[in-house]
Structure formats: structure tokens, C-alpha cells
Recover the amino acids of this structure.
């Protein structure tokens, strides 16, 4: 797959499917991906706020990322949100995303104990981005 090419077209932020008891329902993701591809979308940004990323464990987030990455192609890119309140934890999610072939990573800054200076935010983002030096980084 071509890396670092600009995505031209619509990228969705899909929900993470859950079972009635609150477990991640991975088996629905391929069907959801097919529907989005059939609708002409060019990619997805998974695991962020509309994807319930902040409510899942790191292991659940990794499983969801892997399932979406398995649906990736040159025409359908997967951006994985790796943000958490910990730069070390986010770095490890970034490492996982790159290792598993994500197109790019994204990260919101910490939501609790927010940086009070721009240098702190840059430091946080730097540590996260260093986990996936071969991928585009969206903040």
C-alpha cells in the first residue's frame, strides 16, 4: 500500500460496535467496512471519541484497530486514534498501529490535566508520534 499519499475524499469516524453486555463486537467490523467502501468513503478514523476509544481498554483498542486495518487497501485507508491521558500509553498504541499496518495515527491532547503551555503539548505529541515514526501523525 502507498504510504504518505493524501487522502482525497470522505473519511468517516465509525462507531465501535458493542454487544448488549458492553463487549466489543469485532465480527461486525468487516460488514461495516464493506458498507463504507460501497458508499464511496476513502477511509476511517477509528478509536476516537465517536468510536468509544476513551471507554475501551488498550487491548480492546488494539483489537478494534487490527480488525479495521485488515479491511484497509490502497483505496480505503485506516487512521487509528491512539490518544489517552498518558503519553507513554499513547506511544504504545502508536507502536501497535504502525506494527499492524495502519495508514496513519491521530491523537487528541490530554483531556485531564491539560497542558498549560504549548511546549507541554508539543512534548506530549512528540512522545506519541515517536511510537510510529513511519506514519503520518494527525493532531
Amino acid at each position: 500500500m502507498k504510504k504518505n499519499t493524501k487522502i482525497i475524499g470522505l473519511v468517516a469516524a465509525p462507531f465501535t460496535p458493542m454487544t448488549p453486555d458492553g463487549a466489543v463486537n469485532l465480527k461486525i467490523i468487516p460488514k461495516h467496512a464493506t458498507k463504507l467502501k460501497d458508499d464511496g468513503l476513502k477511509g476511517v478514523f477509528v478509536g476516537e471519541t465517536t468510536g468509544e476509544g476513551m471507554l475501551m481498554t488498550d487491548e480492546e483498542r488494539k483489537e478494534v484497530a487490527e480488525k479495521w486495518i485488515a479491511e484497509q487497501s490502497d483505496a480505503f485507508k485506516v487512521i487509528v486514534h491512539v490518544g489517552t491521558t498518558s503519553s507513554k500509553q499513547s506511544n504504545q498504541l502508536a507502536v501497535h498501529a504502525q506494527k499492524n499496518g495502519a495508514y496513519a495515527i491521530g491523537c487528541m491532547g490530554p483531556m485531564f490535566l491539560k497542558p498549560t503551555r504549548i511546549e507541554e503539548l508539543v512534548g506530549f505529541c512528540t512522545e506519541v508520534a515517536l511510537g510510529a515514526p513511519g506514519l503520518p501523525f494527525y493532531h
Observations:
- The mean pLDDT is 91.
- The chain has one domain: 12-138.
- Strands lie at 11-12, 43-46, 77-81, 104-106, 137-138.
